[in-house]
Amino acid sequence: MTDFTATRARFDLPDGIVYLDGNSLGPLPRDAAHRIARTVTDEWGGQLITAWNRAGWMDQPARLGDRIARLVGAAPGTVVVGDTLSLKVTQCLAAALQLRPDRRVVLSDSGNFPSDLYMAQGLLAALGQGHELRVVAPEDVEAAIGPEVAALMLTEVDYRTGRKHDMAALTAKAHDVGALAIWDLAHSAGALPVDLTGTGADFAAGCTYKFLNGGPGAPAFVYVAPDHQHVAPLLSGWLGHEAPFAFDPDYRPGPGISRMRVGTPPVLQMAALEAALDIFDTVDMQALRARSQHLGDRLIAAVEARCPNVTLASPRDPEARGSQISFRHPEGYAVMQALIARGVVGDFRAPDILRFGITPLYIGEAEIDRAAETLADILDTAAWDRPEYKHRAAVT
Length: 396
Fold this sequence. Notes:
Oligomer: single chain
Strand order of the largest sheet: 4-10-9-8-7-5-6
CATH architecture of the largest domain: 3-Layer(aba) Sandwich
């Protein structure tokens, strides 16, 4: 069993705030500031450059990768941390295309995170080999998987609605036609059980600043199934070299997952991530999932009972969604700003979505009830209809 009262105590949350935006940026783990300070003063300050060896900085991406592997159903030695999610998605897609050189279609859906689509567009254009990025509606993906597809590239949980793809079924369908499956776990890792090995996923990538609570700018992670780790990476960076300090002028890929490393690891960010992952060492992912589904159902019921002017955008079936609940309202941006002003922090996604992350590590029934009550009052009184709530900030 997981003690969610204990996990809540391990986060430094501002007083009076109901934080329902952990699906965009997780809150500060209490131990993170101390861990970063120790890295700065004792390691960087006290050990200087020798900390790459003495403090284990150089090996940290692999150690963190193995800790994340447990949360996403991957074997040790198949996950490594570093760089950004966009770069890792690009590496995965490039590797998949190498493995399917006679196919020209990359299949994705309109619910995918736009950055994934942007990176695919750029990569395919740069290759100049006539590849097509084919984008269909989420519900049409399975039917669109055909023998011309080289790679299926999907985000498991839709960032707007929370709709959850069936990873096992879609990966199996891809394999049936000889295609490979790439999964973006940005809204899955740390939010729900993932089984990359069991589903036969070929490649996956995810970020660590959302449900994993690694902090703003925390590095991404990448997974490569053991059978594919022989592929030479598109981004042949120094730290993916077999022997970085041989300073060989020619690239020789490192063994296994290490070849997916590119640039110098962000040591201070990884220190924060270490502290965040310590919390997950106490968490049973099945218990977390069950609690998330319960809280999500509670929010839906409370909002629908009191807010007739909003429409549920997320699947009603808890098995068909991730760990977020989204509603539609024509003035969604202003409504969310009014909520934030009253201490209920979610976020807005264009064109009209109010998005609430459900994170049982620090959110319980009381917070869910307060969020629903505050939303109802704002809508009943039209409190959102003020100029300051309609001014669009850079980050929504």
